[in-house]
Design brief:
The protein is of the alpha/beta class. The protein has helices at about 15-25, 40-50, 65-75, 90-100, 120-135, 145-155, 180-185, 210-220, 270-280, 295-305, 320-330, 340-355, and strands spanning about 5-10, 30-35, 55, 80-85, 105-110, 170-175, 195-200, 220-225, 235-240, 245-250, 255, 285-290, 310-315, 335.
Length: about 350
């Protein structure tokens, strides 16, 4: 029996880029390029006639750009969309994450040419991401999420038992599908949120500054890329930098490590959550979001065993339920919540634990 190929629409204003991306895909027998178009309007028109399994799309294009095209496609005939961008400018990269907010699922780096030193690695990542996203059933989750989340955060009506320890910081781990969920959560928290938030988000090299800039612009938080010895301050968000594990030590100071990758990853959520469990115990709060694999699952259980409240994203709102699903299977989740309900839970937990002057260590 012949396995059905994954049909891909390639969207890029550069003919050279379209040819290169098509070649990368069709060198693998799993893929078939269903079409190549040069702008967003052509992509919108294409999906009204034919239904690709995945769209691989550039952001910056003349006429209708990737953001507007994604918004229109997700409003009319939703298709999994993977953003393929070659820019390293943080301002332009922020647009990439606006496209993810509009419904795109993932972003990958666009190779320049087969002679580029990292070409084989980039090509493999494109194929892996397109294959994975082809299996995702796309739903329009994020359009009204921020408004709903803000109402939940303001009312903080989620019922939860009072915990014994003051929460000093919140640690979040995320992978595939994570950026829009992070934005949903952070946008749903009040601007005077009283504890720092630290995040390990698996993302293609070079996209992190754009993610930081987008979250900084679209939420009430000041968003930074974590640095060695940097203090973790209330009202601030810290992202683990490329190719470094991130942890937090005494005095809520960030430390970075070049220790071996864990689960094939650096930064790894596993390293991060383990540092929180060992240093803060029940004074930390852990959240594990959508992502493939099992990074952080065992360590979320370790945090829970050390007295921390832990949250895993539910299957229905996860693009890929690998990481949170494994944590749930391990018994590591105190709460299992949709992306839209996590912010209100965080507000409630902080109010219950920190709002009464709790002085426990």
């Amino acid at each position: 029996m012949v396995e059905r190929k994954i049909n891909v629409l390639v969207v890029d204003d550069s003919k050279v880029a379209r040819m290169l991306l098509s070649r990368i895909l069709e060198d693998d027998p799993r893929f078939q390029v269903l079409g190549e178009v040069a702008d967003g309007q052509a992509a919108v028109d294409f999906v009204t006639e034919r239904q690709p399994d995945v769209i691989l799309m550039d952001v910056q294009m003349p006429g209708m750009d990737g953001f507007e095209a994604t918004r229109k496609i997700m409003e009319t005939r939703p298709v999994p969309i993977v953003i393929c961008s070659g820019t390293v400018d943080p301002g332009e990269l922020a647009t990439t994450f606006r496209v993810m907010e509009a419904g795109a699922l993932a972003c990958v780096e666009k190779p320049v040419s087969p002679e580029h030193p990292g070409f084989a690695e980039m090509a493999a990542m494109i194929r892996q991401t397109v294959q994975l996203m082809s299996e995702v059933k796309v739903v329009r989750r994020w359009v009204a999420a921020r408004t709903a989340n803000q109402r939940l955060a303001e009312s903080a009506t989620v019922a939860v038992g009072q915990g014994p320890r003051k929460i000093k910081l919140i640690g979040i781990g995320a992978s595939t599908g994570g950026p829009p969920v992070l934005q949903t959560i952070l946008a749903g928290l009040p601007k005077d949120f009283p504890v720092p938030i630290l995040i390990v988000q698996h993302i293609a090299r070079g996209f992190l500054p754009g993610l930081a800039d987008w979250l900084d612009q679209s939420t009430a938080f000041q968003v930074h890329i974590g640095g060695q010895g940097m203090p973790a301050l209330p009202g601030h968000v810290y992202l683990a930098p490329d190719d470094f594990h991130m942890g937090v030590g005494v005095g809520e100071r960030i430390f970075l490590s070049k220790a071996d990758p864990e689960n094939g990853l650096r930064p790894a959520v596993s390293f991060f959550f383990r540092s929180l469990a060992e240093t803060f115990g029940g004074n930390a709060l852990g959240v594990l979001l959508t992502g493939m694999g099992r990074d952080g699952a065992v360590e979320l259980k370790q945090m829970k065993d050390a007295g921390a409240v832990t949250i895993a994203q539910d299957r229905e709102s996860s693009v890929v339920h690998g990481m949170p699903g494994e944590a749930i299977a391990q018994g590591g989740a105190t709460h299992i919540l949709s992306a839209e309900k996590i912010a209100s839970m965080l507000v409630t937990l902080i109010q219950r634990r920190n709002g009464h002057g709790d002085s426990h260590p």
